[in-house]
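Entry:
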Amino acid sequence: MNSLITLGANVLDPESVKETIADAKCLKHKVGEPWSDSRKQAVVTAYSAFLKMQGKTWDRPNYNATRKLPFIPTEHELDTLVAGCGKKTATFLQLLKETGMRCGEAVRLKWIDIDLERRTMTLNSPEKRGNPRMFKVSNKLINMLSALPKISEKVFPVAKASHIRSTFYASRKRLARKLQNLRLMRITFHTFRHWKAIILYHKTKDILYVKEFLGHKKIDTTLLYTQIERVLFEEKTDDFTVKVAQNPEKIKQLLEVGFEYICEKDDLMFFRKRK
């Protein structure tokens, strides 16, 4: 509703609203870019709810929202943004990268949800009616979190997600210019979630695991990532390094450096890792 008013619509006149939605363009971040059909449909739904509260109806326009394939950056590009932002924003980005949380979920995270000693965090307030999740995170993220001031029950005490987003966009713009890499401008908070899903599926080939990790209710939402993963990694060689192990210590060493168990024969366990 705020967007409609900002764009000059008379919210008491459905025809004015209809015209505004049809011609709407972004005012921030992607200035001048027309609204997507998905956004238009969301605004139509919101305005319909507003009219319903007023006891009114309107001849609502229909927009066919089509799902587009998300932009997937390289890990180096994500790490570049993390390294180039201030302490709080960098920690927020690292959190998104490791957990695949939605922005709103990360903003609501409380210190009580984090076990610094066991390097775990619990998400009990998921968005979009998603499932609750628990994450094991890296020492790097724990150290970054520990360095933040604990001035609130929330880890990131901001009034709205838009506040931290504005800071991020300013840093992103500065880094894109400095490094002459305009791809960085395509990275949003949600891009970190898409990247995490792709990497998880590539490593595990377990779509159900990825679904549970992201908290999706329906697997159809997760299946999108299988197509992207096949394309992004199709040029990878099918050559493998093969190792053999007999004792638990050797097995542990191989698993720690990324080898996967293949089979056992003649009391020998065979492992392999893609070159």
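The chain has three domains: 2-53, 75-232, 240-274.
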